């Protein structure tokens, strides 16, 4: 069993409240979960309205497949015009 995880730090520009931030983050989480079938959640900076940290993971029987899924999730987040990726990390166990 291969477990791949990723963590991405995001800057959310143009928001002025936690309510606006939560709308954007919940939308991104829902789209990623339905499109890529990964577990994903906001894991940090819940009280900061222009910053967020998302964590996600997938389980596979093939390292290449797990790595591919994590890469696709990162690419999807980077292409979303509502957020800017500040930092990201991956780990495959």
Structure, explained:
With 93 residues, this protein is of the alpha+beta class. The chain has one domain: Alpha-Beta Plaits (2-Layer Sandwich). It has two helices and four strands. β2 and β3 form a beta hairpin.
How are the SSEs ordered, and which strands pair?
Elements: E1 2-11, H1 18-36, E2 39-44, E3 51-60, H2 63-79, E4 84-92
Antiparallel strand pairs: 1-3, 1-4, 2-3
Describe the structure concisely.
The chain has 93 residues and is an alpha+beta fold. It is built from two helices and four strands; from the N terminus they run E-H-E-E-H-E.
Architecture per CATH nomenclature, i.e. the level-2 architecture: 2-Layer Sandwich
Mass-distribution shape: elongated
User: Major β-sheet, in short?
Assistant: 4 strands, antiparallel
User: Which structural class matches the secondary elements?
Assistant: alpha+beta
């Amino acid at each position: 069993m291969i477990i791949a995880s990723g963590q991405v730090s995001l800057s959310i520009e143009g928001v002025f409240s936690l309510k606006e931030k939560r709308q954007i983050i919940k939308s991104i989480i829902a789209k990623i979960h339905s499109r890529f079938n990964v577990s994903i959640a906001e894991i940090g900076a819940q009280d900061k309205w222009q910053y967020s940290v998302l964590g996600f993971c997938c389980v596979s029987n093939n390292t290449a497949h797990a790595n591919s899924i994590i890469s696709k999730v990162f690419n999807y987040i980077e292409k979303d015009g509502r957020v800017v990726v500040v930092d990201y990390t991956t780990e495959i166990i």
